[in-house]
Amino acid sequence: MDIKSLVPPTDNIFKFYAVTGLILVIFAFSGAIYTVKHKNQFLIDRIVELRELESKSDPSPGEKAKSQMLARLIEIENSDAEFLKWACAVLAGIGTAGMFWGFSAWHRTQGKVDELAELGAAKLRAEIAAIRRSNRTRRH
C-alpha cells in the first residue's frame, strides 16, 4: 500500500473536515465494538471465577480476599466500560457533526471552485488561441 494514499485531503479545508469527521465516526464505532467485546470476555472470565469461589462452603482467607478482589474488578470494568461508551458516543457525535458540516460546506463551495477552474481553463484556451494567431500573422 502506498503511504501517499493514507494522507488526508488538504486541497479544500471542508473536504478535510468531512474526511476527518468520517474517520472519527469509524474510530468511535470500532472503539465501541472493541469495548463491548473486551468487557463481555472480561466479565465472563471473572464472574465464572467469582462464582466458583462463592460456591465453596468454607473459603480460606485468601479465597475470601480473592473473591472481594474479583467483585471489585467487575465493578471497575463496568465503570470503565460505561466511561468508554460515553467517550465513543461523544467522539461519534463530534465526528458526525464535522462530517455533515464539512460535506455540506464542501458541496456549497465546490460549484464555485469548479466555475473558477472552468474560467481559468477558458482564459488559457483564449490566450493560446491568441498566441497561435499572432504566430500565424508573423509568418505571413
Structural description of this entry:
There is one protein chain. This protein has 140 residues and is an all-alpha fold. It has a domain of 94 residues. The chain has 2 helices and no strands. Helix 1 runs antiparallel to helix 2. The longest helix has 79 residues.
Radius of gyration over alpha carbons?
31 Å
Q: Assess the beta-strand content as a share of residues.
A: under 5%
Instruction: Report the uncertain regions.
Output: none
Q: Outline the biggest β-sheet.
A: none
Keyword list:
2 helices, 140 residues, mainly alpha
Blueprint of the fold:
Layout (H helix, E strand, L loop, with lengths): L12 H42 L6 H79 L1
Helix pairs in contact: 1-2
Provide a compact summary of the structure.
This protein is mostly helical. It contains two helices and no strands.
